[in-house]
Amino acid sequence: MYSEDYDGKLPPAIFHDKTVGWANGLQPYVKSYALFQCPLEAHGQQKVPQPDKPRFTDYWMNSNLAGLDAREIKNANKIIMLGDGDGGAPESTASYAIRKLPMEWRTLSDSPAKRHHGGANYALADGHVKFLSAKQIAQVPPMKKSQFSTLLVK
User: Fold this and answer.
1) Residues 73, 144, 3, CA angle at the centre, nearest 5°?
2) Phi and psi at residue 65, to the nearest 5°
3) DSSP 23
4) What angle do CA 66, 46, 120 make, to 5 degrees?
5) pLDDT tens across 19-59, in order?
6) What pairing do the DSSP bridges indicate for beta strands 97-98 and 59-62?
7) 79-96 b/e (C-beta count within 10 Å ≥ 16 → b)
């Protein structure tokens, strides 16, 4: 819905300043900030949502897609746009975004990528949500300068 209102563009990870990120940029399209909280995450959400503070969201955005024209995305059914993250981390503000899955998330048993029975939930660029194990995620480097590196479902 966001991209329909912005000429096909996906939201930027960070808007004008670090207090406004993709998560609160999407707020007009969702009913509650609670949507950005994993119900199983132990740290709990903020009493009053503060976009520039940790715990605003438990999910990260694939920053390789930030601001991209959605029509440029090839194989959108395999490109990860949003994923389970570490909502207690200092980065978990409204602009929580990563370029690649951290290596330790693949190996640590209590990592966000293994939060739900050894895997996590991911929203893909075509709009569907999928459960994936960390082993099912590949980092694809750009082949040309005009392409972007991204997170891909194997």
Assistant:
1) 20
2) -100, -10
3) H
4) 55
5) 689 998 888 898 888 888 888 776 666 677 788 888 889 99
6) parallel
7) bbbbbbbbbeeeebbbbb
Rounded to the nearest 5°, which phi and psi values hold at 16?
A: -60, -35
Q: Which residue from 19, 25, 118, 124 is spatially nearest to 81, judged by alpha carbons?
A: 124
Strand, helix or coil at 32?
Answer: coil
Strands 80-84 and 59-62: antiparallel
- What pLDDT is recorded for position 130? 92
The pLDDT score that the predictor gives to residue 18 is 65
In the chain, % of residues over pLDDT 90: 19
pLDDT in tens, 64-116: 899 999 888 888 888 899 999 887 888 888 899 988 888 888 888 888 888 88
CB environment 5-24: b (16+ within 10 A), e (fewer): eeeebbbbbbbeeeebbbbb
* Residue 154 three-state SS: coil
Distance, in Å, from the CA atom of 64 to the CA atom of 56, rounded to the nearest integer, reads: 21
The owner of tokens 């939930």 is: 121
